[in-house]
Q: What sequence folds into this?
């Protein structure tokens, strides 16, 4: 457990995830610490973000760090043709920890060839979003009391959804069952069903959301992501394909919890928000504490 960079959840161990859940719990109690006092955290977001960028910035501030960053790629020298490799080498000199989001799958693995400093992938295309997966796992642990023994339904865009891809690596470290709910066009890829087979996790695939709600402990809703479709007509065909409303939620177990990485478009009706099953805004707060724990963990393993 001496990691300094997090680009993917694929190589995280259960021991590490459990450790980070404990760290997040202790950050929840502490609220503010000076673990990163004197450090500079850079948030480089070359794709839109509300939660990830601002919760990393809030986490860094609560750990006593200073923050620099990019929220709009059009204001940077990448517009003049500077490469990502050069950009990261610049931030290697300006910051102690870098959090980066990029629209290209695989960008995070490429970038860490140019820096040894603590680094977090804040999302790279349809590939990975590891800090989201950690906060999602923490949320399941808090909301359901445990992860072992739970049935988790993943709903919506399972093809392009990087949060689903990252989370599957983490929840499959536990004794769970998985239900995939998607239209044929947005099915989970074999890469992930093979992962579940390798790890001995039982799963099923269906297009029926109502059936999945009845048998699950956790519903992980996702947005159909317009920005990942090459042909906008394909998006128009699929948008609105699954809508979870209060009536549907009430058909599930009383202990059912609904998660969503957010932002939502229309896949969860606002009448769900007032139900105790709606965990998605609590999930945002959990993200703050998980990111505090993660920044502390990566930074404490780094020696200049
Ligand atoms: N969940 C998530 O990644 O949200 P943002 O795109 O707002 O960062």
A:
């Amino acid at each position: 457990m001496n990691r300094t960079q997090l680009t993917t959840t694929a190589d995280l161990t259960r021991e590490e995830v459990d450790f980070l859940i404990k760290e997040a719990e202790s950050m929840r109690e502490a609220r503010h610490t000076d673990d990163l006092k004197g450090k500079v955290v850079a948030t480089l977001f070359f794709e839109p973000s509300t939660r990830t960028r601002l919760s990393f910035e809030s986490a860094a501030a609560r750990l006593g760090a200073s923050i620099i960053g990019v929220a709009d790629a059009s204001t940077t020298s990448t517009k003049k043709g500077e490469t990502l490799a050069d950009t990261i080498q610049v931030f290697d000199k300006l910051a102690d920890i870098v959090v980066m989001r990029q629209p290209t799958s695989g960008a995070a693995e490429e970038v860490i060839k140019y820096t040894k400093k603590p680094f977090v992938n804040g999302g790279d295309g349809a590939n990975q979003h590891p800090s989201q997966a950690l906060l999602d796992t923490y949320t399941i642990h808090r909301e359901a009391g445990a992860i072992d023994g739970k049935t988790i339904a993943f709903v919506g865009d399972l093809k392009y959804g990087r949060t689903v891809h990252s989370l599957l690596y983490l929840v499959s470290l536990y004794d769970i069952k998985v239900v995939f709910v998607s239209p044929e066009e947005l099915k989970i890829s074999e890469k992930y069903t093979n992962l579940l087979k390798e790890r001995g996790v039982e799963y099923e695939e269906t297009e029926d959301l109502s059936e999945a709600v009845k048998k699950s402990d956790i519903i992980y809703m996702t947005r159909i992501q317009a920005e990942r479709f090459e042909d906008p007509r394909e998006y128009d065909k699929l948008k609105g394909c699954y809508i979870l409303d209060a009536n549907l939620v009430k058909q599930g177990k009383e202990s059912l919890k609904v998660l969503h990485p957010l932002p939502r478009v229309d896949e969860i009706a606002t009448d769900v928000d007032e139900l105790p099953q709606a965990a998605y805004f609590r999930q945002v707060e959990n993200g703050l504490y998980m990111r505090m724990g993660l920044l502390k963990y990566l930074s404490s393993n780094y020696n200049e």
